[in-house]
Amino acid sequence: MPLEPPSTPWAFPSPVSAESDLVAVGADLEPGTLLSAYRHGLFPMAVDELPDQMAWWSPVDRGVLPLDGLRVSRSLRQSAAHLEVRVDTSFAEVLAGCADPSRPGGWIDEAIASAYTRLFELGWAHSVETWRDGELVGGLYGVAVGGLFAGESMFSRARDASKVALMGLVDLLRDEYADRRLLDTQWQTDHLATLGVVEVDRRVYLKRLERALALPLPVAFAG
């Protein structure tokens, strides 16, 4: 089971009344702070305008993937047949793939990478990986707290490799609590929309989050 870290000394404001996606700035990236943020519906992402402070976000329109809403095309199923899905066998490599500075819009810096590595060591962060012929070709990572899986980033070095990792994650979350589990993608992008990600109002998200946090972890992430 995950190890609960020392509690954070920081108090996050409620995102309910925030006027924009950006809710707060400051605090730190200690494990207790990160877990408190996720439990309050926030996540960290730095912005260039605040180079010395962390920004904490809770989108007004939150991206979520309903577990019964994943869109799997015929070509994606064909790709999946040639890839193996593994969990938590190469977290550092997945993180490095997501943080590749050559990728457009990269935001994962050394501080973020270090923070999520510590969460992984404590049992809270996880990687879902796709392998082909013994080689890591794609994957995603995120944070599991109760019935919440907060997806952070994904990468691909082969056709559909990150999508197959997402398929694998959805399969891991489909258990007797699937109707109350919450797969959070932060925002709905055009790419994620093609996979079935939808937007929900922030207040709706926070209510669903409260219910999800009371659930047990999926077996794959329970240690």
Automatic annotation (TrEMBL):
EC top class named in words: transferase
Substrates-to-products reaction catalysed: L-phenylalanyl-tRNA(Phe) + an N-terminal L-alpha-aminoacyl-[protein] = an N-terminal L-phenylalanyl-L-alpha-aminoacyl-[protein] + tRNA(Phe); N-terminal L-arginyl-[protein] + L-leucyl-tRNA(Leu) = N-terminal L-leucyl-L-arginyl-[protein] + tRNA(Leu) + H(+); N-terminal L-lysyl-[protein] + L-leucyl-tRNA(Leu) = N-terminal L-leucyl-L-lysyl-[protein] + tRNA(Leu) + H(+)
Entry-linked PANTHER family: LEUCYL/PHENYLALANYL-TRNA--PROTEIN TRANSFERASE, LEUCYL_PHENYLALANYL-TRNA--PROTEIN TRANSFERASE
Entry's Gene Ontology BP terms: protein catabolic process
Name by which UniProt lists this protein: Leucyl/phenylalanyl-tRNA--protein transferase
EC number(s) on file: 2.3.2.6
Function description: Functions in the N-end rule pathway of protein degradation where it conjugates Leu, Phe and, less efficiently, Met from aminoacyl-tRNAs to the N-termini of proteins containing an N-terminal arginine or lysine.
Family named by the database record: Belongs to the L/F-transferase family.
Keywords for this protein: Acyltransferase, Cytoplasm, Transferase
Record has Repeat as a keyword: no
SUPFAM superfamilies: Acyl-CoA N-acyltransferases (Nat)
Compartments reported by the entry: Cytoplasm
A GO MF label: leucyl-tRNA--protein transferase activity
Keyword Acyltransferase recorded: yes
GO cellular component, one term: cytoplasm
Encoding gene, per UniProt annotation: aat
